[in-house]
Amino acid sequence: MPPLFYIVLMCKAGLFLESHLNEIGEFMKNTRFKKILYATDLGRNSHIALDVAMNIAASTQAKLIFMHVINNMDIEQDEAIESYISDALFKQIRKSKQGLAAEKIERRLAEIKDENPALFASIEIERVITEGPVTAQILTLVEEQSVDMIVIGSRTHSTLGELLIGSTASKVVHRSKVPVTVVPL
């Protein structure tokens, strides 16, 4: 069953104003989301989508789940490397990837806390780091945790099929059973 609606926000220079919520419509204001999933690759401009997710969570009094998926492609590379190094070193490398992701998440949240302490204090935030195929991991978490909305950033790519929405965001939009907000980065 397809989502009830898709929302695409056009945000420039990382600015998200309260007035953007008005552009989404009365539906957003009158809906009480309980859980919003912010899925990120932790890339350079991903803070733009985080700002959107946090503002939506605050305005709807929803819990925010901050999710990063360690890409399955990286896992396949790890398996190739594993055949050349010891198990202990391989496990250390994998643990290091998770640790680096956790550090980036905490740095992002600390920046938000410093910039807007009231916004940060108004939102319950859960951190999730998983490994595997990105789209599948996102949609599995949505189902397991009864998420009401997904916020995801998208970079434009050069191929025609990904001109408007990036590949991961596009797959999430087309397969999700809940509303998806795609934020151009």
Features:
single chain, 185 residues, 6-stranded parallel β-sheet, Rossmann fold, alpha/beta
Brief synopsis:
By secondary structure, the chain is of the alpha/beta class.
What does this structure look like?
The chain is an alpha/beta fold. Helices cover 49% and strands 20% of the residues. The protein has eight helices and six strands, in the order E-H-H-E-H-E-H-H-H-E-H-E-H-E. The chain has helices at residues 18-24, 26-30, 47-60, 72-82, 87-115, 117-121, 134-144, 167-175, and strands at 6-8, 35-40, 63-71, 125-132, 149-154, 180-184. The chain has a six-stranded parallel beta sheet, with helices on both faces. Strand 5 (149-154), helix 8 and strand 6 form a beta-alpha-beta unit. The longest helix is centred in the middle third of the chain and has 29 residues, at 87-115.
The name of the CATH architecture is: 3-Layer(aba) Sandwich
Gyration radius, in Å: 17 Å
Mean pLDDT: 79
Number of domains: 1
> Strand count, sense and closure of the main sheet?
6 strands, parallel
| Tally of separate helices | 8
Q: What general form does the structure show?
A: globular
Strand and helix map with partners:
Blueprint: E1 6-8, H1 18-24, H2 26-30, E2 35-40, H3 47-60, E3 63-71, H4 72-82, H5 87-115, H6 117-121, E4 125-132, H7 134-144, E5 149-154, H8 167-175, E6 180-184
Parallel strand pairs: 1-6, 2-3, 2-5, 3-4, 5-6
Helix pairs in contact: 7-8
